[in-house]
UniProtKB/TrEMBL annotation:
The chain crosses the membrane at residues 12-29, 87-110, 122-142. This is histidine kinase. The keyword Transmembrane applies. Keywords: ATP-binding, Kinase, Membrane, Nucleotide-binding, Transferase, Transmembrane, Transmembrane helix.
Length: 421
């Protein structure tokens, strides 16, 4: 607060004082007068003395280094400024007492506003008043009534400046405290928003985690019931292994990835993604009622991309799960429903498309999804699945495009950049 206060007034005081000094020297310069030359030397001394305070952070002394921006040194500097300025007024032969009074009043204002603490202000104002008395009771031959009048005016203006400066510092303090409080509230609000976003994403991922746990339990149950069929056991063991692997990846996303731009990234092939989809999504118990197709390009093992560990499978799984639910609402379990997963390679990218002939979505709902608003039309839903999809697409540098028509269809397209191996 003290530093801000001083910097504010220095931007006003220093230019005004420099201009006033130049005006005085230009107005009362007399090159034939030895006394005037002494005044110029005093001005140069005063400039050098103040520059030292501005340039150096500390001044070495026999008693140890003295901090140049300390409150004590500011008081000393202004005492030197005031006494030297009184000497300059005498050297320049300024014969108008009003000019001298104005110059001294300007210096008093500078001393009062740059020195921060009340007791230090009293010292600088005391020095200013001593200089005033020397000027108008010693140097200028004024009548006693004029001296009393000048003294009363000077003290009245000093009192006015003092009260005005106190009022200004009160306003500045209040303003800075309000700014500090506002920043604190904004920071707390950002933290709450981030916590809320993490909570929403955690709920969405938790749904996927529960689904994977269900797949694992189903595989374990089928291993128990079909222990005589060797081929079935091998297939279920493979499915169980892949499910556990994805459960670990989901846990990694929850613990390390949410809100973390430096979350672990790895490279996988389209073949690996296809294997996971066919192995895990096809176990959904609604597949028998809905026609599910998964189409990947040939030689999918030649195409690679980067992802936050496990994200792409979870994105597609979310879209397929939502597609199943949308289809069920329209076709009521009949085999007329369909969900198609197609992957198409285009130059340096590939497009994952999930299409269904379900309930569809309105334009407003599509906008809400893109704006990261959690919405749902399902009685038991939370609307966080598509929010998770949009969030993970952003974090993986993928592009999500949605087109839909109510009671007709929905198409979700994810554009993913390929990498060269």
């Amino acid at each position: 607060m003290q530093t801000r206060y001083k910097n504010l007034f220095n931007t006003i005081i220093i230019p005004v004082m420099v201009i006033t000094d130049i005006f005085l020297i230009a107005s009362y310069w007399d090159q034939n007068n030895q006394q005037t030359r002494y005044g110029v030397l005093a001005v140069l001394f005063l400039i050098g003395f103040n520059l030292i305070q501005c340039v150096f952070k500390s001044i070495p002394t026999p008693w140890g280094p003295l901090e140049t921006r300390s409150e004590t040194l500011d008081v000393i500097r202004w005492c030197v400024n005031l006494s030297t300025s009184m000497y300059i007024i005498w050297c320049l032969n300024i014969d108008e007492p009003a000019v001298a009074a104005f110059f001294l009043l300007l210096l008093t204002f500078g001393a009062m506003t740059e020195v921060y603490r009340q007791k230090h202000k009293l010292v600088t104002v005391g020095m200013a008043f001593v200089c005033f008395c020397i000027l108008f009771y010693g140097i200028y031959p004024l009548a006693i009534e004029d001296r009393i009048y000048m003294t009363a005016c000077y003290l009245g203006l000093v009192f006015f400046i003092w009260k005005l400066e106190r009022l200004m510092i009160g306003e500045i303090t209040q303003f800075i405290l309000e700014q500090k409080e506002r920043r604190s509230v904004e920071k707390e609000s950002e933290g709450l928003q981030r916590d809320a976003a993490i909570g929403h994403s955690t709920k969405a991922i938790n749904h996927e985690l529960n689904t994977l746990i269900g797949v694992a339990n189903l595989s374990a149950f089928q291993i128990e019931t079909n222990h005589n069929a060797h081929n079935d056991i091998e297939q279920e063991m493979k499915r169980l292994d892949r499910t556990l692997s994805h459960m670990n990846r989901v846990s990694s996303l929850v613990l390390d990835g949410l809100g973390n731009k430096k979350a672990k990234v790895h490279t996988i092939s389209l073949q690996e993604l296809e294997s996971d989809l066919r192995l895990l999504i096809s176990t959904n118990n609604r597949v028998c009622k809905t026609q599910l197709t998964i189409n990947f390009p040939e030689k999918s093992e030649d195409y690679f991309f980067e992802e936050r560990s496990g994200s792409t499978f979870l994105i597609i799984h979310n879209l397929v799960k939502n597609a199943f639910e949308a289809v069920d609402e329209v076709h009521m379990g009949r085999c007329t429903g369909k969900v198609d997963v197609d992957v198409t390679v285009l130059d340096d990218k590939f497009v994952i498309s999930v299409e269904d002939n379900g309930i569809g979505m309105s334009e407003l709902k599509i906008v809400n999804i893109k704006q990261q608003l959690a919405t749902t039309t399902k009685l038991e839903g939370h609307g966080l699945g598509l929010k998770f999809v949009q969030s993970e697409c952003i974090k993986n540098n993928m592009i999500l495009d949605i087109s839909s028509k109510i009671d007709t269809f929905s198409v979700f397209k994810i554009t993913v950049p390929l990498i060269q191996r």
